[in-house]
Here is the input.
Amino acid sequence: MKYARAPNRSWAVAGQVGLWAAIILTLAIGTAVTASATAQQEGDPALTEVWDPEPRTVDPGGAGVPPADAIILFDGTGLDAWRHADGDAAWEVHDGVMTVAPGAGNLYTRQGFGDVQLHVEWRTPDVIEGEGQGRGNSGVFLMNRYEVQVLDSFNNRTYSNGQAASIYKQHIPQVNASRAPGQWQTYDILFEAPRFGAAGEVESPATMTVLHNGVLVQHHVTLRGSSVFVGEPAYEPHSAREPIQLQDHRNPVSFRNIWVRELPSRADANQPTTTPRRTSAARSR
Here is the structure.
């Protein structure tokens, strides 16, 4: 005679206990989340408000008008801010525009700069002459050695790391945002200078962001050294402030509305934010 096997009650009890444990754990987690959300909603938002330091106010200017804190390098009235290596600037100035006088030499700012925001408007000749690197060629050099190429790159093929808005022979622009010859173009450049140690070693390399005609073409790229025509770029120690250079490449490229804003050093910019504190109950949220 066969007998039916009685069910293992210990297993059943264990299963029920596990089920109840899972339910209790789920409820506990849900309660904790709800309590945390409630605490955040009921807490004092002023505890995370930072009031100091307060950013200073700067009039941003407008179309063709630089910000109020900009240093004007060329406003169409003269070349007082510039010089040649061997004397006063001799490029042509006419109708608010300065144009390369081929063979006169490069221009250098009389003042040196480090970390900057630089705005430059430039125009290649409307009469097309030459091709490749021989057409509308100039350059904007930060610290007299780190070049953003100026070139007529509108339907004018050349090596990609030498076209307009390239960091010359280092970084190819993300896109070609060039306008046709004879039209005004803009560069807006954010430049962080390299830092050198006491022995001349590179502690941090230079970086650059470039907008060409309002289009981002270089996004915080790291420079490998000075711009060179032959060979590989390399750093050489230099002072913390050096002139900005405009290149005479023997093409009559024109410039206007050039200004620069000096930026706080990376050390200042990277200071920890002030501890959040509520300075006045009267301040609205």
